[in-house]
Amino acid sequence: MIYVVRAVEERKPFVEEILKQIPEAIVYYDEFRDPMKSYLHVCKDIVAGQPAVLLEDDIILTSNFKEKAETVISQFPELLINFFSLSKKHIKPHFKKGREYCMNQCEYFPKGFSLRVVKSYEHWPLKEKEPNAYDFLVGYAWGNNRDYLVWCPSLVQHREVKSIINPRRSSKRQSITFME
Q1: What is the reported pTM?
Q2: Phi/psi class of residue 93: alpha, beta or left (left: φ > 0; alpha: ψ in -120 to 50)?
Q3: CATH number for position 96
Q4: Which of 11, 34, 50, 157 would be 57's cystine partner, CB 3.0–4.6 Å?
């Protein structure tokens, strides 16, 4: 299994914090300045079908992140797992349908899934309407009615920073279940 951090140069200090816990992580700096193009590049050319944990640069990791994440993954190696949740009603692990997939702060892709994401993009009905919504693309690729796992407590916290993709988004998108 590999770890991949998707990042922009402006957030290099955040990436350095992530690398303290995951020094072997592959860091991909968005050379295209295009979130969807970069996401698809990472899925196709870096992850390339391997089981992988994908992380965004604007997160804070829980203590012993790798140990916690790998324990969960060992129990559910064939499932898509989201390690970040904004839910205010769920405080324990729970299943949701692919059509509800949201937030890519930290996700586990089982073997082969990254290539399915790339292939699904060709026929994704929201390609024009939501050009940067790669979280919606992940849910579509997984299957609208297929269950994926949302792990709570969240193993990462979304930093309270302005979105690079859409600066109008609220910076108040933190998980209530995150424990350092």
Answers
A1: 0.92
A2: beta
A3: 3.90.550.40
A4: 11
